[in-house]
User: What shape does this take?
Amino acid sequence: MSAHDHSDHGSYRSYIIGFLLSVVLTVVPFWIVMADVDVSLGVALAVIFGLGAIQVLVHVYYFLHVTVQAEDGWQFMSLLFTAILLIIIMSGSIWVMLHLHENMMPAHDQIERVRDVK
Amino acid sequence: MASSIASPAPEGGYQFYVTEDPHHDHHGGDDEEHHHETGTMLGFWIYLMSDCLIFGILFAVYAVVGQNYAAGPSPADLFEIDKILLATFFLLFSSITYGFAVINMQQKKQNAMMFWLIITGLFGFGFLVMEVLEFEHLWHLGAGPGASAFLSAFWTLVGTHGLHVTAGSIWLVVLLVQVKMHGLTEANIRRILCLSLFWHFLDLIWIGVFSFVYLTGVLL
Assistant: This one.
């Protein structure tokens, strides 16, 4: 039980570590966009999403105090289950809808055809 | 446990929820630390996971229709990233000050805890003010939720997050009154820990919002 004490509520130290990590992980993506740093779009997006994902993990560990042991593992299991559902929902929606979008007639052609009909 | 039903009041007050591990009832000093390890915290966590799915779906909607501008304004025309950075830091500061409040609560320092909770509330209020100003600005530009699919998805996603922060702030004020009236009772401690999860969770969702909606939106 005593092993929980540290991880459950955190300490000043763990909150400050989490906070400082979050500051860095927030400032870097904002700096890339605001300072117009000269990197390709792909690199910029990779940095934004990569650091965002890391910051989510930092928050989960340092602020929400989720560990594998907490609540006999149920907290972690429900988080994992939710994450899997989210991945399915997000990637599935984007994948399917982008395919649909590609198979649609381009708006420009459509307008031209309507003109021809007149 | 059965013997305590007849007695006037068990140590630490009655517990109106299911308690786990009945085999070791050590009603000693260190028991205080473990009150939250009951169904309430796990149940609240599962509520948060369901909330997470709501936000996930709103993010998916935004991903699908977020670039359909209907000849209207695009993110690069609308978003003011410097203000979003400020709002982000309001939420981040409120997260760490809530953490300090929980630490003080654990040490039974009621006044210090209330001080940090009030600071948290002020940062939360600052965030909400920024958001309302942004919405008002968009509205005056004619970029309301009806202007395009992008703006519908944007208002729904960011607005849902804002409503959550509003609800959390109201909850915070109610809890401050409760603690002032009844002190750090077991029930109040449990409520403060639940709101702590809720508050940190909203900050976590905001990471997705500023990365995916604001920063990515301005880049594309």
